[in-house]
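Running log. JK asked me to keep both predictions on one page so they can be read side by side. First protein, sequence followed by its tokens:
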Amino acid sequence: MNPFSLGSFPATRLRRLRVDDFTRKLVTETNLSPQNLIQPLFVMEGEKQTEDIPAMPGLCRYTIDTLLEEVAELQDLHIPAIALFPVIQPHLKSDFAKEAYNDQGLLQRCIHQVKTTFPHMGVIADVALDPYTSHGHDGVLNSKGEVDNDSSVAILLKQALSLAKAGADIVAPSDMMDGRIQMIRKGLENEGYTMVRILAYAAKYASSYYGPFRGAVGSASQLKGASKASYQMNPANSHEAMREVAFDIQEGADFIMIKPGMPYLDIVYRVKQQFKVPTFVYQVSGEYSMHMAAIQAGHLEEQAAIMESLLCIRRAGADAILSYFAKKAAGWLKAGDLP
């Protein structure tokens, strides 16, 4: 008897849904568009300059004027928002991060210029002390050399208010101090910034994938190899991430962030399924650098690998992705030359 005769073989052949291009398009479950992408940008002091970032090929630091030129290109690609990260000059760094809440500081001036020139571009401002501290930690240290949670939160509140005053649409606390979302939300409300949104880095892991970023903003030399494990999350834990997210939502976060991206897609999925809130994912510097190393060595095909990585993050549940590939991906999507 023919084992494939009618009645002895399954009537359903899932390959029928993959047989040609139009059918595959009709049954596609996950889509990626420029509206899902946020471009992180590094800004430094100076005029008419860019500086290459050796560990992140193809990326650079911008002075405010050259950054505005980059933002113009991103807007033309329909990328809805940028995330700004400052490179603070060494002489402005201090034990208590005073420069973080200087209303005339680099990040504050940059935000003002971007919003003045491009009022419809969303601006996400990083709320964190590590670019500003002499020791490279995301908080201030007590007399024992430990990161002091409550003293750090008081400074983060000052920083968030300063960034809101400069015109930031979204403030993004990335420090992982306990209680900072509640304090920042109350502070914004009390000062009349009721429409400034909070993007909480709710599940930010003490990851090995942050190295190139720390080099890009100049905090690696201050940190001197010290660990951030006392405040960033243990990579072994997932239930704890659910608690972190729940607290941040309760305290007033408008969006939540999971960081890093691809190694933590199980966390993205769990968060989206459980909380069903706007969920952002940061495809971090180490992920970018690994992709670029493999691409430049000829081991990966550039467009296919990058687009697959972003699509996988979307599939796991991300509404938006902070990615150093955002501009490249938006360009490919605009050109419509995807396979």
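And the second, directly underneath as requested:
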Amino acid sequence: MSRVRLLLFARAREIAGRPRDDFDAASLAQLLDAARARYGADFGDVLEHARIWINGDEPPSGLLTDLADGDEVAVLPPVSGG
């Protein structure tokens, strides 16, 4: 298990009510499952369309990507506007 920071932007931040949070997770899938459980179904909906980056890069193995202590995982929902 690694201690990682989840960085939340746009709609993800609004739903969570905070810009960041810390989790213990071994993989990206485990982290996102824990975030869904903590923040609810609306957050899960945002994840369906969001880009996820680990330390500024796309996860090399998708949801199976292992996480290490101190990793920062960003949830970047699509931007809307006009």
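Observation for JK regarding the second prediction: Residues 2-76 form a domain with the Ubiquitin-like (UB roll) fold (CATH 3.10.20.30).
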